[in-house]
Hints:
With 406 residues, this protein is mainly α. The chain folds into two domains: 68 residues, no CATH class; 237 residues, no CATH class. Helices cover 72% and strands 0% of the residues. It has 14 helices and no strands. α1 packs antiparallel against α2. The chain is globular.
Amino acid sequence: MDCINQLAQCLSAGGMDSGLAEFISIFLGVTLTATFPLLVTILLIWVERKFAARIQDRIGPNRVGPFGLLQPLADVVKLLGKENITPQGADKPIYNFAPPLMVASVLLIWAVVPFSPYHIGSDLEIGALYTIAVASIGTLAVMMAGWASNNKYALLGAFRVVAQLISYEVPLAMAILVPVMLAGSMSMQDIVTAQYGMWFMFSAPVAAFLFFISSQAETGRAPFDLLEAESELVAGFNIEYSGMKFAMFFAGEFMHVFTNGVLMAVFFSGGWLGPFAEQAPILGAIYLLGKASVWYMLSLWLRNSVPRLRIDQMMNFNWKFLVPMSILNLVVTAFLLQVIKQAGLGPADAGNFLQNIPQTLILLLGNGFVAYVMLSWARSKGRAARAADEAKKMNAATAASVAVGD
């Protein structure tokens, strides 16, 4: 961050040792980057409970503080007062390390999120790859929790991680490759600035859809919440956790959902881009959080509107629809980008809206082709499955009538 560098220079100018000044500035930057999402999570808990209540025709939190705003703080106090229980036979080091690892996996993503043209924790050249890598640590935390709890239901919930989270990482990673190709860089800041003339969600709507759905599954949220299917697993992998250890798992989940909204904004909605964002960096942060909030609300809407899938439905949806769609979309996008490049239809000035229109229209047609092919294939498979079911029922009815006649 430029402001952190300026702080180090100010401390050095005041007579402080340059090494110590740099350490203090970096420490403050890390503290701010890690604290912000934790504070936002407190508000998100209230927002999510209120949003779910409105969809389900309830009131939601309304007792503690104005409009129930202090309810999350009351919940924190309650959880702090609860007994920390460690089950007999648990692998204590791994059991106790899993909850903070879950939170850390989300906080690490924020290190490469660009809040403005000048404010980013670390502008890594492999920022997009970094987000996928550190997000996978959450999967490891869930597996550690289930394995170390010495509980068969927790272990079964952890085993589902292998089947669900790792599987949905395939279309997620392939979806991220599309904005990387469009920007020509894996740097998060470069991906944002490449959207000056046109947001990537208009030229790559299929990739945006794939990323949104896959990230919903990656966080284990409904309708993909089989990791915590209480009707089957008695709360799943975290059944043996209590007090603040239990709270840390859910804090990580709430943070991850909003972080997915932030990543949707960065990869497909222009991130901090907006009027006067370069002149007033605080506006860039407001634009980023506002766009992330829209995606976050869509995620809550999906969670509270769609029933939970069965494990076979969820895996079929991934491997038989999302993965083929992501592969086809990646191939078509790469081919069209080469056609655009050879035909000279790419924008000479990436920040010019009008110059981006030819490329956007061509890519949009390619996305329409991908969607048409996949939906047609899904329709034909659905018709074949229904025809097979009807034939099976007809055969059963014929056999029953013959048996009655005999």
